[in-house]
Amino acid sequence: MPNLALKKVPMPEQEPDVRNANFREVTLGYTEAMAIEEAKRCLNCRNKPCVGGCPVSVQIPEFIERVVAGDFADAYEIITSTNNLPAICGRVCPQESQCEKFCVRGIKGEPVAIGRLERFVADWAMANEPVSPTKADKKNRKVAVVGSGPAGLTCAGDLAKQGYDVTVFEAFHVPGGVLMYGIPEFRLPKAIVRQEIDALRGCGVDIKTNMVIGKILSLTDLMNEGFEAIFIGTGAGLPSFLKIPGENLNGVYSANEFLTRINLMKAYLFPNCDTPVRIGKRVAVVGGGNVAMDAARSAKRLGAEEVYIVYRRSEAEMPARLEEIHHAKQEGIIFRLLTNPIQIQGTESGWVRALECNEMELGEPDASGRRRPIAKPGSRFLLDVETVIIAIGNIPNPLLKNTTPGLETQKWGGIVVEAETMATSLEGVYAGGDAVTGAATVIQAMGAGRKAAQAIDDYLSGRRQDPENPACVVGSEIVEM
Amino acid sequence: MYKIVKKKALNPSVIRMDIAAPAIARKAEPGQFIILRVCEEGERIPLTIADFDREAGTVTIIFQIVGKTTHMLSQLNEGDDLLDFVGPLGVASHYDQPRKAAVIGGGLGSAIAYPQAKKLHQMGVEVDIIAGFRNRELIILEEEMRKVSTRLFVTTDDGSNGVKGFVTDVLQKQLEKGIKYDLVVAIGPLIMMKMVSNLTRPYGIKTIVSMNPVMIDGTGMCGGCRLTVGGETKFACVDGPDFDGHLVDFDEAMRRQQMYKAEEKQTLEAHICRLSGKENSDA
User: Measured between alpha carbons, how far apart are the two ends of chain A, in Å?
Assistant: First the structure.
């Protein structure tokens, strides 16, 4: 009997006034009974519109059917046949604009809680099933993946499962990219990320940390070391600043720096961990995306009394997920909408004293289709704060581009690729994720990683190896015996 | 893991270590830096590469014991491993064949100035080295510096080595004597680099300084190392660490250096307490 309730089975979560003082995960996940009850809401429709909304085509009705049957191990196998990082996706995917957006149950009532079910299955498998990866026959062919964020890990996992020798190069001391340095513990516990990455290692993926490709090794060096194809998934790690006076005052952070200190370097455990972060009593976070919400909620947890989101448009234009905005408000974050910073004022000794802002109103739609904010005349005011966090976006890091002649990029830094194959301007070099698109979502990066893995397999299948020297490969078009 | 192959104290608070890091040694150039971490809870700290040996596969770092991380680092010995060692980061120093250069090192900065002098010396440049220290006990690398210079001036703040004064006093004397430098490289405390830059500005001598601000990743990701150079914001990690001393906003850099002073003191004191088992320590 399907469950005909119009609403999702609620997921337990920490109370807002408890959780805004700790870094433990906000949402607590379904129990088995809750998961089965929610799974029964799926109508198992024939045309599966939900699957079309998923960038990695998770077989959604199939896995949900196994959840109904209580066969969670089977459900996990179905999910992981197309998704290498289900415990992560179940937590951070914007399901409302992907799979769940197309769910038939969403026409009248709430869609099936696909994300929560995916998370439940992945967590269940981590807790109950020793992951026994299916190892394909070794092809003895090497592929390098630069960057260990969601794009790189997905590409690496897919290729390793097909028998390629995959080495992932990560610049930081731990793998995971934005999953480790960007998304806070309370939204995505790092232990979960580590477990997902360990599962990939189990599939044969080799991960080398402390390797800044472009510095310690160039792409040519990698080719010379016998890597036949390279995937670039270096993300969008270069922070944008507002370019207003006062941005170099003490107490001004890029969201990247603020979150990296907290998430990767564990500044929230200071002084038990050595990396500090300055919070102050009043904090302004400039920006309206998920990263801004993460920074604001982190500042609150670290003891700030008042935390403002300063955003120049209205709430309707905010790029953050509704759930993140909702959680931020619940936790006491103050939204200063239609507010545009024009200067950061400092004390004599060079510390932030206040954020000078204009009040804005919305005019005609601009190039982005959103109504353009216009300053109200004579509306200048001061927001007294001690810390300002700039969360207005990131662009791709030029480090690799600058050291790789011939790698074509867009003016703003994104790597140019062929849409179908993710192939770059260099033979055998593919790219995907934020390094190509600019800042986007975890799952979009994973979709790109998957597409590139497929293209790399096609590319390498069309090439033969020199049996005398496996590192020396002849392009298929010139193989003539 | 990255093994400490060799360790030597250069003075009571400055230590030199050769670290086994063959891939970094292959690519390293003077002016670049590494980032290291000593323990799982530890900070990432940047240190300029003091030397490298491509054949032996080692990278040399020279550091002063100032905070918890460098204190912990100083406790490690030959055969021990560093947890993380990343590099080579930053842009290598680049010099267009000057004729006569003054390379100036302040305190520990001499350790970083030395490879610059060596590189210039190897390029056939006439190199004067001016190295300043607080007192005689703190003088480092005197013999090494002598070998790669035409003239070596070692000066002490207290005059305990027989030459009293700051590096700027020596430089000023040379300039007033009419010595024509077409390049000055100054590496040391911010205030020293600022004073040297102020001194050379009216003479129009190209002056390169090496900036070493707080940073985390060293790849342009956090922006914590930003500074103002010629009115523009630059990241020391990817745009530097070498910059035109006449364009750097040193006052801002000095303010930014104060950002975590209280926290640095706190971790160091807690660390010393744990080591000594005392409630309070003046160490």
Answer: 64
Q: Does the CA dihedral A108-A110-A115-A117 come out positive or negative? A: negative
B216 in reach of chain A (CB within 8 A): yes
Q: What is the pLDDT of residues A217-232, one digit of tens each?
A: 999 999 999 999 999 9
Note whether B148 and B210 are same-domain residues. yes
Please give the mean pLDDT across all residues of chain B: 92
Round the CA-based radius of gyration of chain A to a whole number and report it: 24
- pLDDT band per the 50, 70, 90 thresholds, residue B261: confident
Q: Is residue B130 part of a domain?
A: yes
Are B115 and B189 part of one and the same domain? yes
B279 — pLDDT class (breaks 50, 70, 90) = very low
**Which one-letter DSSP state was computed for residue A261?**
I
pTM: 0.91
Q: Which is nearest to A55 in space by CA: A4, A28, A89?
A: A89
Q: Find the Cα–Cα–Cα–Cα dihedral A218, A224, A226, A232, rounded to 10°.
A: 20
- Residues of chain A scoring pLDDT < 50: 467, 469-481
Q: To which residue do tokens 């269940």 refer?
A: A124
Amino acid at A111: P
Q: Which of B40, B86, B248, B254 to mutate to test the interface with A (most CBs of A within 10 A)?
A: B86
Q: Find the domain containing B22 and state its range.
A: 2-89
Residue B230 has pLDDT above 90, yes or no: yes
Chain A residues near residue B43 by CB distance under 8 angstroms: 265, 274-275
Is residue B41 one of the residues assigned to a domain? yes
Task: State the DSSP H helix or E strand holding residue A353, giving kind and residue range, or none if neither.
Answer: strand A352-365
- Structural domains in chain B (count): 2
For residue A276, what is the nearest residue in chain B, using CA coordinates?
A: B263
Write b or e for each residue in B49-80: b if 16 or more Cβ atoms lie within 10 A of its Cβ, otherwise e.
bbbbeeeebbbbbbbbbebbbbbbbbeeeeee
Instruction: Return the higher-pLDDT residue of B79 and B1.
Output: B79
Helix (H) or strand (E) holding A255: helix A255-259
